[in-house]
Amino acid sequence: MRRIYFDHSATTPVHPLVAREMDHFLTGDNFGNPSSMHYFGRIALNALDEAREKVARAIGASTGEIIFTSSGTESDNMAIHGAAYTNRRRGNHIITSAVEHHAVLHTVRALESHGFDVTILPVDRYGMVDINDVEAAITDKTILISVMHANNEVGTIMPIAEIGRLAQERRITFHVDAVQSFGKIPVNVDDLGVNLLSLAGHKFYGPKGVGMLYVRKGTPWKQTMLYGGAQEHMRRAGTENIPAIVGFGKAVELAVEKIDEESKRLITLRDRMIKEVLDRFPHVELTGHPNLRLPNHVSFVFRYIEGESMLLSLDMRGIAVSSGSACTSGSLEPSHVLLSMGYPHEVAHGSLRLTLGKDNTEEDVEYFLDVMEPIVTRLRAMSPLMRNSDANIPAE
Amino acid sequence: MKKVYFDHSATTPVHPIVAEEIIPYITGKFGNPSSVHFLGREVRKAVEAAREKIAQGIGAKPEEIVFTSGGTESDNMAIKGAAYANCRKGNHIITSAVEHHAVLDTCEALKEEGFTLTVLPVDKYGMVSLAAVAEAIKEQTIVISIMHTNNEVGTIQPVYDIGRLAREKGILFHTDAVQSMGKIPVHVDDLEADLLTISGHKFYAPKGIGVLYIRQGSNWQPVSHGGSQERRQRPGTENVSGIIALGKAMELVVSELEEESQRLARLRDKIIQGVLERIPHVHVNGHPIKRLPNLVNLTIEFVEGESLLFSLDMKGIAASSGSACTSDSTDPSHVLLSMGISPQNAQGSLRLSLGRDNNDEDVEYFLDVLAPIIDRLRAMSPFFQQNMIRLRLD
Ligand SMILES: Cc1ncc(COP(=O)(O)O)c(C=O)c1O
Ligand SMILES: Cc1ncc(COP(=O)(O)O)c(C=O)c1O
Question: How far apart are CA A20 and CA B82, in angstroms?
Fold first, then answer.
């Protein structure tokens, strides 16, 4: 059976060149602990330093500002928890948005039960945060703003540079989760005006089990999550995951190298997919912003169909997609992102996310569209909601 | 040049069979285990199979295994999660002076937050006494964390007795089994552990993967927040290839344990005997019997540890003078100091930790290389000169 992977926001395959570099550090003399002072340790330390340089270069940082972690989730937790407690004397107010990843939202919620005040900013129907809302939320107790660069469920790109300028003016620490945007749109820490920025390797053809937290020099931030060793300049304890860090470095390099041309290619595919779906199927709506969205991100709500049913039907035909984010799948809760964009529960349940990647082609999109037609027809024929709506409401 | 790796307590090479097993999960099978589609399901199955292997290896149930990014994270999670979950019941934590910094520093951080802490002393072998634990326990004690075996001197702690005492008193017991896994039996019931830490890169799996065992029914809470992975106990997309590797490595070390530890103990004793025969003014640190089969810690008087390591390194021998993760600092080892060894002698310590690729030839090469290095370094040492004069005068 033909297999198509349209779930690159959940995770990506490791790039063959990345895998090759990693293999190198899984065999031979390259297994050392970078803290060891002998030959084996030095090889590992060199590899670590080189990867750090690649990452720093790619996001416009200096090497001392890069901390390797085990995931995007860890980076988000570390960033927010650390900033909150380091600034505790200055204030206790944290601002974030309703559409953040749970790694941010749940961390902030946990702080709320420890005496922090939290403002969760609303979003508009595109999932966009309004800079005026950010400004209005700021008080003299505000110590941290955390807003994601691009949303994982609907692909909307937030006005990060504007928020960054505002945060800088008010001397508020600004964290950005760039897990989904990196490799798809430019991520430069100065252009975005961030103090803290999270990345996860497995979202841009690097391996799982490695992430990064950028900490701008001079940011009032101390690590408060993981104690024990002197690694990562005393900011992230634990023996470094060298093969994965090497892979991360290579993946970063590759992602930045081809970003312009690859984004253009993906935008073409994306827009074709969006147009065709909206043309071919009634009662479907694009979710997220029509233009200010990730080049590889397509997301819809299909009325009168369960997202999960579409997902399973497509899966049977070899097409891997998702209905919301992977890490909350399995739960029957509708997406908090769609709900906060104003979609009612029953509509949010019909969400379908298709996220494209480097191996996807024009033919993949065609194949998907062909396969999708009978699926939609069949599922809607089975839907009692659809029948009711046909009887009562004229088509939109 | 001949290369001899005698630093397996710092990290180990990935076992070739383990490496082979994980390559497909780096190249082809890349799904996110939380994804519902075929790529997700295929990977989910492999992750759960690995979890079962690990559970089996330590006598646990699969649902008691939580994957982490390493030993440090597991130690942090274990102690913080236990402390926070029980903070209404009490606020007292007991640990020992010879723990890894992942435990000690976590306990110190909790102390800053208002918990109270007892750091138990050890005897000259680095051993914690059960009586001292019993004495330290108070009404408010909620967590005891004592490592299974020490990473610097290899001493095996009376973990079973401590665990039983903790259970009697209704106190959560955590043990760091990072160094013992694969060298001596690690079984959660035999150790009476509620929480137990292991780290993949210490037994031929890659770096960046660890486990926290959490006994069912333990009052413990997660310490980081995010997705619902690992039964909501540890968020973040799973390090799939690391997990697969850990499963395989566990299977391998457990199946080879008995034979391999006998082999290593023989090599270890050959080193000890050889060094003691050939070089004067040498002491063996750690317990003479209750010790890891693969680890030797020596104090070589009148020699500075760093120069010794450097000289060995030039001859292709990789060793260490304590734990790797503190080797940045030039402070003498907190473990040796708490065993009553003088700072000067602690500086001259040499740790040799053996592994599956080491053989008799390596040991002989090391012994041949060591004696002339020591002679040369001592010839340069003013302390040694003074000492020799004193000896002659005596
Ligand atoms: C006893 C002990 N605990 C914890 C650790 C930390 O493990 P990791 O380096 O995997 O974080 C180590 C290794 O350095 C260790 O020896
Ligand atoms: C926006 C965003 N932040 C954070 C994460 C968490 O990353 P990881 O699963 O690597 O911990 C994800 C991915 O699931 C994400 O999409």
Answer: 41
Return the residue of B nearest to A321 by Cα.
Answer: B37
Per-residue pLDDT tens digits of chain A, which is 396 residues long: 899 999 999 999 999 999 999 999 998 899 999 999 999 999 999 999 999 999 999 999 999 999 999 999 999 999 999 999 999 999 999 999 999 999 999 999 999 999 999 999 999 999 999 999 999 999 999 999 999 999 999 999 999 999 999 999 999 999 999 999 999 999 999 999 999 999 999 999 999 999 999 999 999 999 999 999 899 999 999 999 999 999 999 999 999 998 999 999 999 999 999 999 999 999 999 999 999 999 999 999 999 999 999 999 999 999 999 997 554 555 567 899 999 999 999 999 999 999 999 999 999 999 999 999 999 999 999 887 776 665 444 444
User: Which residues, 6+ apart, have CB-to-CB distance to B21 below 8 Å?
Assistant: B244, B245, B248
Residues lining ligand 2, Cβ inside 6 A: A 71-73, 76, 101, 103, 148, 152, 177, 179-180, 200, 202, 211, 325, 327; B 236-237
CA distance A65 to A52: 9
Mutate to test the pocket of ligand 1, among B178, B184, B196, B197 (most ligand atoms within 8 A of CB): B178
Chain B residues touching residue A114 (CB < 8 angstroms): none
Chain B residue at shortest CA distance from A5:
B39
The whole-model pTM stands at 0.95
Distance between CA B348 and CA B321 in Å, rounded?
8
Structural domains present in chain B: 4-10+257-393 (3.90.1150.10), 16-253 (3.40.640.10)
ipTM score for this prediction: 0.94
Topology (CATH) of A16-257: Aspartate Aminotransferase; domain 2 (3.40.640)
Please state, in angstroms and rounded to a whole number, the distance separating the CA atoms of residues B188 and B177.
10
Domain boundaries, chain A: 4-11+259-385, 16-257
**A327 annotated active-site:** yes
Euclidean distance between CA atoms A71 and B283, whole angstroms: 44
CATH of A4-11+259-385, one of 2.30.30.40, 3.40.50.970, 3.90.1150.10, 1.10.357.10: 3.90.1150.10
